[in-house]
Amino acid sequence: MAGVKNNRRVQYTKQVIKQSFLKILEEKDISKVSVKEICELADVNRGTFYLHYQDSNDLFNQIEDELIASVMPILQIEGEGFIHVWLSKLIHLLNENRTVSRIILTDYQNSRLVKNVFAEVQNMAMRDFSKDFKENDPRILNFYFVFFVQGSIGTILEWLKDDAGVSEQELTDALTKVLERISILGLKHV
User: Fold this and answer.
1) Burial of 103 by CB count in 10 Å (0-12 exposed, 13-18 middle, 19+ buried)?
2) Distance from first CA to last CA of the chain, Å, rounded?
3) What is the pLDDT of residues 98-147, one digit of tens each?
4) DSSP-assigned letters across all residues of 140-165
5) Rounded-to-integer distance, Cα 187 and Cα 133, Å
6) Do residues 106 and 60 touch, judged by C-beta distance below 8 A?
7) 1-53 has which CATH code?
8) Model-level pTM greater than 0.90?
């Protein structure tokens, strides 16, 4: 019974530390956040923090790892209209983790989340782009993919930063329309 109690206590402590860290990140850049500051807000001592994390970067990496683990099952969605379903689930997950998502996407070129997600979809996207744009040159197909990735990330990041009242569904619908329109234009202009 002590193991369960201690496990719950550890889970609670880690959750409080993460929540405190994310609250601080809403106001400060990650490079300016100290362990002392996290511990004060979480009401834990530094020894407790270091029992679970090496430093604030390690804490952030663990939070990012959890987000990656949540995103990976979404990438397995296939079938007719999968882009809309995939985007809907991804946007919902990013919205639930708004602060960390905003930080990750702001520096997306160094993000393990972005690298993992888009590595998974790149082959499928390249195959679709090849068919839709009637293009076989992998260099050109890569440009299409980069356009897709950077445009999608930029749009989602803008939405995460701006509280203009655009719902998850509205954003999903807008991105889906743009991606479908790009695909249609590719077919028309070949």
Assistant:
1) buried
2) 68
3) 989 998 888 878 888 888 877 777 777 777 777 777 888 889 888 888 88
4) HHHHHHHHHHHHHHHHHHHHHH--S-
5) 6
6) no
7) 1.10.10
8) no
177's tokens: 């329309």
Residue type, 103: I
Q: Is 97 exposed, middle or buried (0-12, 13-18, 19+ CB in 10 A)?
A: buried
Q: Where are the domains of the chain?
A: 1-53, 61-188
pLDDT confidence bin for 70, thresholds 50/70/90: very high
Tokens 């202009």 belong to which residue? 189
Using CA atoms in the order 70, 71, 74, 75, what is the torsion angle rounded to 10 degrees?
A: -140
